[in-house]
């Protein structure tokens, strides 16, 4: 799937290091790429995602901004319309709401409003999701808000290799991309990642684990947990795990093909259940593959409650046991 | 002392209500041709506005935001820009956009519901913005990008008094001050944000004084005096391009003026404001005032006024004809320009929609 150069040397990276590596490569490749946000400069980002970039590229390209999310994204939109490729960072997805208007009212619509005269080649990066014992408003998973908006792309990597390749594609893409980084697995594991720049295409899901009994669709940190659940079930249930990687545009072909093969499905996401993307995926399968369906599609998700403070977050987030139980329900229907 | 360096509550004025130059006021140096052109553009702005409202009443156009009363601020400010300086308008800057060489037929097409009117070809004009104040950070970002590219262009951003209550006003101006961007923030303070008066937008004595909080100059000008507006904007544009010493490049201009009509054709201003107030402001109407000045200066006579009137009426007629005779956009236009490359799912929806149109025909479909 990726156009990775197999000859290049590799390095052992965590997901957040791969993000940093991806930013570095794209900034080196094009002077138009600019990183901006709160603490992205000298501090190197609160998660170290922009570490060293300030020293390498200077304060005109790695810009510590005032603390103002709408200002960060709004000025980035102006920059993008004027030919740069800004990569604004929102420190946590739970703080993206002040910038929501700019993202949906303007970034997503400038191409349409100007009938193609202006575009918005901007990547809004935001760590998202729970599980790291963060304070209130730091654990949100609101990808559905952005998937609902025409004109935006929404990307969620779940491996270091994908984080670097998808980020490179997002930065080179002529359209605005919301790039959500699963902070629960920022440092959970390492992977061999090519040192050279490479791209991983947007809009293509990855089958992480082949299986014949049930297809489980997921992304981000939940992909990692779903794989754990699949391992737990190995020998009992043969689980196929589809990591969507891009939530908009959704790779419906891969979803439907996988479902046709197994005839059973579940969706795992940490966002609240109501209005979450699991509903969309389920409806797509109903429309395109109803006659292959052997059992109801199960949604294994966060709850319709505000994300709890961290004393309870382990109960809120789907973890391998809950995921495995849900998969059993589907298969034993 | 520069025109800009003054107490923000001391309003810059050149012409009095009768079009006479105030004692001690400096008249900006403008060629006769440019003065007449400004007059012509203000006149066409007014006439266009009246025709547009009438088109809406006749059902030939959708909701329209009129701007009568604001021609002096719009035309006077644009004339202070160089040809490749940028304009980032709100939805009411019809005359400013026209002064930037965008044909009136494009403005009409947009308000007739055809998004292609917003493209504005190759003019340095950004598509007008309907949400309030959201274009302000865009202007700062564009100016910032231009500065990073080493250009010397200036970016002028228009908004109303209501916009100054929004977070994006504060964020856009704050970024502009911090990053010293070549931006002129031009507030068309027309006294009313739909039905809410300026006094309900801010307890500040003036809007201009807010600039102090962002570290750059703010200046209040009589927005119904095109010469004063030109003078102030020219100084702001010059400073944005080449600031002196420690001056910051941005300026906030508060152009004090009045909209004679409704916020849009969908509201009735008689519900929320008194006729007396309107009449009082009409005495400051920028058009007769500027006309009187030009007549006093011997630059304009009745014959020339008649000629200009005839000329602009014909130009607006032509613009209306052009807008109304353009083919309606093809329905498949909805699916164009949403993404650089149409995603499969959207392409599927377009194909399904086209099959539906083929099967039923547009007439049956829209019954």
Automatic annotation (TrEMBL), chain A:
Please report a single Pfam family linked to this protein.
Transket_pyr
Per the record's keyword annotation, is Oxidoreductase included, yes or no?
A: yes
Q: Does the keyword Oxidoreductase apply?
A: yes
Residue spans making up a coiled coil are: none
Q: Which domain of life is it from?
A: Archaea
Question: What are the protein's UniProt keywords?
Answer: Oxidoreductase, Thiamine pyrophosphate
Q: Which cofactor names does the annotation list?
A: thiamine diphosphate
Return the InterPro entries for the record.
Answer: THDP-binding, Transketo_C/PFOR_II, Transketolase-like_Pyr-bd, Transketolase_C
The UniProt GO MF terms for this protein read: oxidoreductase activity
The Transketolase-like pyrimidine-binding domain extends over: 13-188
Question: One biological-process term from Gene Ontology?
Answer: sulfur compound biosynthetic process
By its UniProt entry, which Gene3D superfamilies does this protein fall under? 3.40.50.920, 3.40.50.970
| Protein's UniProt name | Alpha-ketoacid dehydrogenase subunit beta
UniProtKB/TrEMBL annotation, chain B:
The record's CDD domains line, in alphabetical order, gives: TPP_E1_PDC_ADC_BCADC
The answer to keyword Ligase applying to this record is: no
Listed A to Z, the keywords are: Oxidoreductase, Pyruvate
| Gene Ontology MF, one | oxidoreductase activity, acting on the aldehyde or oxo group of donors, disulfide as acceptor
InterPro entries, per database record: Alpha-ketoacid_DH_E1_comp (IPR050771), DH_E1 (IPR001017), PdhA/BkdA (IPR017596), THDP-binding (IPR029061)
Q: Name one GO biological process term.
A: branched-chain amino acid catabolic process
What Gene3D superfamilies does the entry give?
Answer: 3.40.50.970
Region of interest: Disordered: 319-348
Asked whether the keyword Transport is assigned, the reply is no
Basic and acidic residues compositional bias: what residue ranges?
A: 325-348
Domain annotation Dehydrogenase E1 component: ranges: 40-331
Name the Pfam families for this protein: E1_dh (PF00676)
Q: Which PANTHER family match?
A: 2-OXOISOVALERATE DEHYDROGENASE SUBUNIT ALPHA, MITOCHONDRIAL
- Protein known as: Pyruvate dehydrogenase (Acetyl-transferring) E1 component subunit alpha
**Which gene is annotated as encoding this protein in its UniProt record?**
pdhA
